[in-house]
Prior knowledge:
Layout: E1 2-3, H1 11-20, E2 31-36, E3 44-47, H2 48-52, H3 59-62, E4 64-66, H4 69-74, E5 75-77, E6 83-86, H5 92-96, E7 103-111, E8 114-124, E9 137-143, E10 151-153, E11 167-172, E12 178-184, E13 190-196, E14 207-216, E15 223-233, E16 241-242, E17 246-252, E18 260-263, E19 266-267, E20 278-281, H6 287-292, E21 293-295, E22 301-304, E23 315-323, E24 331-341, E25 349-355, E26 359-360, E27 368-375, E28 385-389, E29 395-400, E30 403-408, E31 419-428, E32 435-445, E33 453-454, E34 458-464, E35 472-475, E36 478-479, E37 489-493, E38 497-498, E39 501-502, E40 507-509, E41 515-518, E42 529-538, E43 545-555, E44 563-566, E45 577-580, E46 588-591, E47 593-595, E48 605-609, E49 619-621, E50 627-630, E51 641-650, E52 657-667, H7 690-725, H8 738-741, E53 744-751, E54 757-765, E55 774-778, E56 787-792, E57 819-824, E58 832-835, H9 836-840, H10 844-849, E59 853-854, E60 863-866, E61 871-874, H11 880-884, E62 891-898, E63 903-912, E64 925-931, E65 939-941, E66 955-960, E67 966-972, E68 978-984, E69 995-1004, ...
Parallel strand pairs: 1-87, 2-8, 9-15, 17-24, 26-32, 34-43, 45-52, 57-63, 64-70, 72-79, 81-87, 89-96, 98-105
Antiparallel strand pairs: 3-6, 4-7, 5-6, 7-8, 10-13, 11-14, 12-13, 14-15, 16-19, 18-22, 20-23, 21-22, 23-24, 25-27, 27-30, 28-31, 29-30, 31-32, 33-36, 35-41, 37-42, 38-39, 40-41, 42-43, 44-47, 46-50, 48-51, 49-50, 51-52, 53-54, 54-55, 55-56, 58-61, 59-62, 60-61, 62-63, 65-68, 66-69, 67-68, 69-70, ...
Amino acid sequence: MERVSLQRPAWKWQVLSLFLLCGWGWVSGQIHYSVVEESEVGTVVGNVARDLGLKVEELPGRRLRLGSEESLRHFAVRLDTGALVVSQQLDRERLCGAAASCVLSVQVVTENPLQLFRLEVEILDLNDNSPSFPTTHRTLRVAESATVGARFPLESAQDPDVGTNTVGSYWLSPNSHFSLDVKQQQDGKLFPELVLERALDREEQPELQLVLTAVDGGSPARSGTVQITVLVLDVNDNAPTFDRATYKVQVPENTPVGALLLRLNASDPDEGPNGETQYSFGVHTSDLVRRLFTLDPHSGEVRVSGALDFEESPFYEIYVRAHDGGVPEMEGHCVLQVEVEDTNDNPPEVLLTSLLNPVPEDTPPETVVGLFNIRDRDSGANGDVSLEISPDVPFAIRSLQNHFSLVTRDSLDRESTSQYIVELIAQDGGSPALTTTLTLLLNISDVNDNPPHFLQPSYDAFLLENNPPGSLLCTVSASDPDDGDNSRLVYSIESGQVQGAPISSFVHINPDNGNLYAQRTFDFELLQVLPVSVAVRDSGSPPLHANVTVYIFVLDQNDHPPTILHPTSDSDIPAPRRVPLSAPAGYLVTKVTAVDADAGHNAWLSYHLLPQSTDPSLFHVSLYTGEVRTARALRDTDVGTQQLIVQVTDNGDPPLSTTVTITLALEEAALEESYKPRDFLAGAKEKPDLTLYLIIALAAVSTVALATVTLLAARCLRRRGRAAASPCCCCWLSESPSRDFFKHSSPKLQLSSDGTLKYMEVTLRPTDSQSQCYSTCFSPGSDRSDFTFLRPCPPPATLPRATGAFLPATGTLRDPGQIRYSIPEELTRGTFVGNIAKDLGTDVAKLAAANLQVLSDSDSQYFSVNVNTGVIMVSERIDREQLCGQNPRCFLHLKLAIENPVEFYRIEVEILDINDNPPEFPSDEVSLRIYELASLGARFPIQPAQDPDVGTNTLQTYHLSANENFNLNVKARTDGGKFPELVLERALDRELRAFHHLVLTAEDGGFPPQSSKIRITIQVLDANDNHPVFDRPSYGARLVENSPLGTLVVKLNATDVDEGPNGDIRYSLSSHNSAALHQIFAIDEQTGEIRVQGNLDFEEATVYEIEVEAKDMGSPTMEEHCSVVVEITDVNDNAPEVILTSFSSSLSEDAPPGTVVAVIHVRDRDSGEQGRVQCHVSPDLPFQLRKDYEHQYSLLTSTHLDREQIAYYNITISASDLGSPPLSRHTTLPIALADVNDNAPQFEQASYEVLVAENNPVGSVLVTVSAADPDSEQNSRLSYSILRAGGTDPGLDPTRYLSIHPTSGQISAKLPFDYEQTTYLQFHVEVSDGGSPALRNRTLVHVFIVDQNDNAPRVHFPRAGEDSATQFRISPSTAPPALITKVVAIDADSGRNAWLSYHLAEATDPGLFSVALRSGEIRIMRALQETDASAHELLVVVRDAGEPPLSTAVTLVVLVEERGPEALQGSEARATDGGGLPTVTLYLIVSLVLISTVSLVGLAVLGVRCLRWGSAPANQSCCVESVNTLQPPPSHIFGHLHYEPKQGDTVMGVQVTATAPPAPRYRSCFSPVSDISEFMFVKPSAGPAGANPPDPTLCSEQAQPNTDWRFSQTQRPGTSGSQNGEEGGAWPNNQFDTEMLQAMILASANEAADGNSTLGGGTGTMGLSARYGPQFTLQHVPDYRQNVYIPGSTATLTNAAGKRDAKNSGSSGGNKKKSGKKEKK
């Protein structure tokens, strides 16, 4: 459905349309005019007045005009003549395009009376457009291989004119290669094509210029041209050609790399990639040539890339291939011959046969340390070599013919020179002479011939006392000029005794770096100087030693405060010294004597009188003597007892001090005797002090336990020391065979960071260098040091000198002539080669005696010599090809030597070749790709076969299997190599045969001959020499219009016999097709399927002719064309169109029926019955359609409208034709009804009730009244106001208290309300809308004032002033429960806020009087006693029940008329003084028991452990205890305190970690909650020490305080606020219930006083009825159980505790206050 939304047109067109449609008339007949396009403005089309039968003079009165905007755009009507004229220039092509007929519809309207006329104006075509091509220049690319008759479509010219004025013919400019052919489609369109009449050749003419002209059929005729440039595309039909077939060049050997030899040149007449020539080595070129020479693929430059050596090869033959970049590529070949010229380019070669390195420094002179051989590949004078040595080294050269030896000339000293650089210079006799320098780096190995020595004769170290253990004292350093182990120094401390203790217990030295550390804390007072003898030894064999003395001076620190010697105090209370009041100034009172254990300035003491003394001005103290004297004469006004505080301070930094207090008694006549201390309680009889006894017992038990543990530990350690020193603990005391073998062992200690032994590594190195040495490790981490591992150790850094490894220093070399043997290759082991003794003419026995040896630098692995027979035999398989390759002659050299005298022999053995290798091709199969258009005689090289044999055994000839197309040609190189080539003898055709299979055989000349074969597969490459061919030249198809997208029209089929891209066909629409046709049809370029991709409309075109071209993907491409004719069948596919001529989207709701809303025009592009249209609207709408004439309808209102019921209409107009099936179109017209003020506003409620609390803030919103008006916009805008209305007080004006917001209706308070003055208010609120006239309505609002607790209770009786109290007198004999008085109070509030309760807040004796909760009666609760006070002050508080409650207090004084006896004092203290032990005593008992238990358990465990150590087998401690003596006991445990205080912490964790890594860790927790922090638990810690931080949940196993520990609601007493708010109870609401509640409360209180009921028991309501709920409990009984806190307990106090407390309370004589205090404690 199409939805139309139009903007509201101008008002004049709305009014005009509404009035004109009322008198609409009918028009019959059709008037047709025609006019030529491009006519001038004002041209008369026709006389409308005459043709319509109208008179010209009536036209102004009838108001004749054009009815549509389209008519007014092109034409105008002259009222003076009635003629229809052109108003603007007409262009038929712009109006109607290429349509054959162009007709415009014109509407003419007369308004008086209203009539509508329709006219048709046909626009005739004029030849005003010339034919034009899409572009003025077109480039056409045609391959030079295109066949004659090939067609090339051209783009047709376009002419917007129609009929005979359109394009009628084409003309082509004269040329020698192309002709023009014009095709005509069924619609009359012409398409030009170029036809190739003569073959093209790009090399002759690469470009053609043509002109195509298009001429139309108009008069005069018009034409258009296009310039066509035909570019002839190149085809790769020419191969590259070299300037010469063979190139020759000469080059000297050793030509530098990169030197240019020759620049090759090959040309190709083709262009582009077909003419781009690239150079490469041919397949015949060997790998050696490819390594020595490089060929630039683009420039053809041949350069040297390797070393050219005449001795290796004097001649090289290079095969070069040049190929172009065409497809397929074509190539040419040439040969480059390179001759190498010889030069003296081989320097002498110095071959090191044997060398002793390093050389021991004690080697004697004339010792042979190296053997050399010298050779030169050159011959003649160039091969004569001399050898020289550098003169500044203690070595010399001894020459024996071609062999040289290096001997020592002088004695060696490594400490003077540890390394020699020996240069051997070999020089040949060439010109210029070539030299070779061999540099030898000879190291001199060390011998331990130098002892270590210290850098200083002695060392001084200064150390402050109280140093921490492990402090660095000093570093001793020694040096050793030797090397290696001989210079590796080990420091140690010589044994000795200091103060009865070993010196090692005082200091420790690091054996590696000489750092001297303190083992203990030094005290200057005990030891001032400590001499330590340090020894150092090297690791040589034997080791050398040195000693030095280190003096350690302990420096004093101020670590002792002064000690008071006099006066002394033997008791806690110093005895006063008597001073006579008559003592004059300067009187010596006493003298303070002190000493300091420190020395020097730290022991200098000074005395000072502190200002804290009683009268510092009365006495003074001597600064250095400590004498206390009076500063003035004493007076009677001085205080009788004087306390002097004297401070003794030393001179240290920082200074330390001690104070002493001296008490002086000023008397009239002081006795001249010293004060003797007395005990103030000397005369009293003391009872035994249990606490003192417990302290003594605790100290005794602790001392005994500590002493016992110390003795046992010392005994265990002594036993372990004896076990370590026992001979059975040594692993090497057994008489095993390996004792002497592993004679030398070197222990290595590895210390931990804390100085303890981590592990010990012992290296066992045998004296025999050929044996394996081993290393083992021992670890002291566990209780027994187990054997950890045994592994081979690396050899020592210096190699021992082997005797007999070199020849002696004296001897001669002989050369008895060259001995040569010849043997064939591949002989078996043990085959006889020759007899050396026989050929030398020497007796075999003499050779054996002379120690005949085969030197290792010769080819000795292939031969062996029998010393007893002198026979040389083959000892290993000999392969000539592997040894010598392609060299014609192959020799092996064997070097022999004898010792007495020294003689050398050189034997040459020639290896003869046998035919043991057949010729072999690089692969078993080779593939060639040859273009099918390759020219006859083309050559294709084949990889040659390789035969490692030489001479006649190598490759001799090739054979090719029989075939029709190829022949074999074999080329021979100058070095004898043969290379096969295939020669094309017959043209190839891929379409006839795509593959050729040949066999090439290579055969050598051996006997018998050996051969190998290679399979050659030739693939004929396709050439694009066939164009695609369609099955038919034209195709036909029939389609129904409006066929769905993707409908298959036809599937084309074209074939191409070529393959690959040449046979891959792509389909496309030809450029002859119009752009509209390209939008309607699409072709799949792969399958050739033509499908519908646009809309097929029979009304636009009935026939489509499609030009299709098929192209292959070859280079160049070839194409073929065909045409497809598609006929379209008509169907009813055009739905009616609804056009709004006039429409008003807004309509007043009071519009009368029959009002015209819209004028509608309908049309259908179909014809006949399919073009007839019917319109209708829904009958449910208040609208109807009226048919004015054919295709014209009016939309009218049919009934009255109401906007409040329906404010918006969507009117759907349905137009359907009479086709089969019929088509319809739906158009929706939105119509909005304009509002009329016809509804009064209505309130949501008839009246409003508001509850307002008094004392409300000014401006607070009380209520919001709301009214609604169904009208819209201004008619629904409401305004509120307050009208005065009668209330409880007719004189009240509501506007005085209230205000209303005129738009929102919020009623606000202008003044605060007072419930005591006004309780109710009533008024009217009026609302009016904004319509014209305005409509109104009213509502009634009731405001109820709610009371608040804003008045405190007022006491009416007894009346008393602010600072006075009312007195009441009672008799001492008043019996309970006598009424003393009654407090009467009232509250100005109402309801619950006026309910009052009375409470006794304070009283002299709270248990003597009581106040009734509700009545305020004050009664006496017990009989008066003599101990009671005579006046009792009572503070009574009157409290209301408001929220929050308000209260008033009144003070009453109750006087007892008669006086009673004196009150008893201390009764409460005596009552609370019970029996039992003191707390400190109990703690001491518990501590004594715990210490005794722990001591017993510790002693038992330590004893068992010592017994276990003592009973350990001796064999188990053999390798264990000896290692443990090297380390401190592994049981040292260090404690680590980890405590991070946080809010709410209840525990503190202590982590204890052992020093040995495998030892377990333990953790402990202490709780500070109780008075005594008990040891709670010990558990192993996870992971090694230091691996993880302390666990914050370490002590989480201790039960935390239960935060939920408290009484339940049914168990605990308490205030009503502590109860659950959901358990609501009811307040008493009348006088009877109130009195009953008071009676029940009094009864419950009496029960509690008698001790018969449980405090908080039962339901927790103190015996009250469940009617009032748990709110009404005794509100002033304190719940002391809430303050009880049990650390670490999860228990909850039950009701039994309450019962027990209640019983205790009852047994105390009714004194509830005292019982409560005890419970709180």
